Amino acid sequence: MAIGAAVAALLVIGGGVWAVTATGGDEEKDKKPVAGKSDDPKPSGSKGGAPVNPGDGRGDGGEDPEDLNEGRQAGESKVLWYKEAPDAPASGADAPGMWITGETVVKAAYKQVFAYAVGDGKPSWDPITFPEKICAVTPEKTADDKIIVAYMSGSSDRAKCNQMQEIDLATGDKGWKEEVEDGELFDTTLSVELNVSGDILMVGRSQSGTAYDVTSGKKLYDKKRYGDACFPAGFASGPKSIVQVASCGAGGNNAHDEVQGLDPKTGKVLWTYKYDKGWRVERAYSVDPLVVYATNEDKKVWNISTFTSKGKVLEQVGVDEDFAPECGWAILDRDLQGCAGVAVADNTLYLPTEATSGANEIVAVNLTTGKEKWRAKSPADESMMPMRVEGDQLIAYVQPSYDAGGQVVSIATGGSDHKPAKLLQNPQGVADIENSFYSKDIDWVDGRFYISTTRLTGNDESKEKLMLAFGK
């Protein structure tokens, strides 16, 4: 879906031109979406061939047989270790998730889960191999460093993504195992989404959800169709909250989306916010606090709203920009939390602008007022993406180019100087490999930068890397 700049009505606010939607009536006191121009988020990066290496993803670490650090220049980081991607079918395979503890990096790929020591990449425990391909994972680990992996029930077209397995990231031990039941008619487990909030695991099907105790695998409750032909279309979770996005009255005159705050332990609806007809809730940039990105295809506009803990719209982002976080495709499934390049901390939203020519910028937005606080320009001609906030510093990643490796930079979140300071300059000699991660997961932990692929091509002639770790 392409969101262009055409609008139904225009309003001049503070020198900027804004698209404005109709409200739901005088009696509606909540602020309704006010939108500006935007393009749909797209994955970025280039398709480059990584060195041919018939690895199985296991590796033994501690060596550099491809001499990736050869010719490293003064001041450049080094490749601490790297792993080759395991064999995948010609049609490709998913490699979802990347979880980092104090000692171990864990990565899923096709039918396996691998674990590597953070410092030298040596195996932390033997790979776990499932009988069928992995189809979903919990993006975040639990408080006690566990993850849940879902894999297919078989290899036929009728196979379901319904086999769940708990894994201990520290030891590789398998915990509880459960099978997700299908819902009602047309509500299947052909695909599922897994979200963790505290000790609650929410499993989202196409039109419903089921909550489990994440420590035992015990089923707790279901979230099903309700009211005026409403059904759960997606879930998003934070450390203490779960929100449900419902699609209501599909195809009718009253078609609309609703956002609901849930009590994670019971599933009780704490509040409901109804979007006007024509608006589709696309992403949840954050859950604690709740920051929602929605689009209106008919009016060709978008809206970013921040909500109070009681489900009232606190404010809407009023910055005239084309923002471009890296978001996966979500045509049939909502994938509400499938965006990278977005950070929220201390009542501030950090978003990257789209690079039309040359360097882009990161914009800091006050979530209470919706106004811009400051912006920082990328130190290179390549795009800069927020990763996380550490203390009073925003950590960001600058994409590599053909003649320079990527960078990790810090930006002061307070004060008046927001010039990026370089923390890590990745080597130019590995830029083509770093740039080959078209669909990727990135993280910065304890002075190390990790980049891994989230999609295997299955191309035997140019096997890509599964993961690289950079450091000083």
What do these coordinates show?
- The protein is mainly beta and 472 residues long.
- It has one domain (10-471): YVTN repeat-like/Quinoprotein amine dehydrogenase (Methylamine Dehydrogenase, Chain H).
- The protein is built from 1 helix and 39 strands.
- The strands form 11 sheets. Strands 4-39-37-36 form a 4-stranded antiparallel beta sheet, with no helix packed on it. The protein has a 4-stranded antiparallel beta sheet with strand order 6-7-8-9, with no helix packed on it.
- A hairpin with a 2-residue loop joins strand 14 (193-197) and strand 15.
- The two termini are 42 Å apart.
- The relative contact order is 0.15.
- The model is unreliable at 1-55 (pLDDT under 50).
Write the layout of secondary structure elements.
Elements lengths: L9 E4 L2 E5 L13 E2 L42 E7 L8 E2 L3 E3 L3 E6 L2 E6 L5 E7 L4 E4 L8 E6 L11 E6 L5 E6 L13 E5 L2 E5 L4 E5 L5 E5 L6 E8 L4 E7 L7 E7 L6 E6 L4 E8 L4 E6 L4 E7 L5 E4 L9 E2 L11 E2 L2 E3 L2 E5 L8 E6 L5 E6 L6 E7 L2 E6 L8 E6 L8 E5 L5 H4 L5 E6 L2 E6 L1 E2 L8 E7 L1
Antiparallel strand pairs: 1-2, 2-3, 4-39, 5-38, 6-7, 7-8, 8-9, 10-11, 11-12, 12-13, 14-15, 15-16, 16-17, 18-19, 19-20, 20-21, 22-23, 23-24, 24-25, 26-27, 28-29, 29-30, 30-31, 32-33, 33-34, 34-35, 36-37, 37-39
